[in-house]
Structure prediction request, 332 residues.
Amino acid sequence: MSAIEETLGQTVAAVEVRKSSMPTVARLVLLLGLLVIPLGVSDFVVFQVTTVLIYAIAILALNLLTGASGQFSLGQSAFYAVGAYTAAIMMEVYGVNYALTLPAAGVICFLFGFLFGLPALRLSGVYLALATFALAVAMPQIPKLAVLEPWTGGVHGLVVNKPEAPFDLPLSQDAWLYYFTLSVAVVIYWLCANLLRSRTGRAMLAVRDNEIAASALGVDLSLYKTLAFGTSAAFTGVAGALGAIVVQFVAPDSFTFQLSIAIFVGMIVGGVGWLPGSLVGAVFIVFVPNLAEGISKGLSGAVFGVILFAVIFALPHGARQIADWIAKRLPR
Prediction:
């Protein structure tokens, strides 16, 4: 790239990061609110909010793939499952500390996603979505194979022991796992935001906007597309590992195609390409189904569908649309 092209790329990336992020004051207020949530609420509520943070990481990973590189995936449940089984097997079969399972899950899922991205290079649009759909459908059957049953537990799954708070901290198991998950979520959010500012992020944005123009500027399409898949899979794997630790159980039927759909819905509701929207989308997919079941147990699916339709109709750009509306009315 020439100096002019490099400068232009940096300017575009800076604009994209500002659009995909939120003001510093708002981030600090949100973080403070998340820090005080476990104070004065039941362990069940803490568990639910921890689940929200885990799904937020998975949605953030999909947002990075779709919002930054323009690639669609309906197979995130497969990467989530690989991360969950990696953590469960390392903890229960080999006795590894739970904190060490997260980077291991990230590395394994990165390799898995990168290798899957290689044959998927010839696909795009609905065809890529169909290929990832096949991955999501096939994954729940793999842990049931007899050759893997000594590690995966087969159809019965694996039970994971919930870790205690270290250093004799006066925290319950649920509260400690909440703060542990929150710390991981903050780190991953920081990594994603800085990735978009980097040369790699600028290349991904260029590939998303126009592949022909990006290739003409010297961007290696194959490399950056597979890197996007690998990075997204790595963060999704970390979310899966956290899910296994928090839920204390992994089984093949926990990672069906419905999980991929839930993550995809969360991305749409939060706003494609808007990183903070991942948290909004996670809140939606965790609490709205419970709200729908409270309205009508027999027709909970229909009620959820009506709520989702209303949200998409009113906010076609997701929660990002509300954030933009507020930002325009605040003093600069």
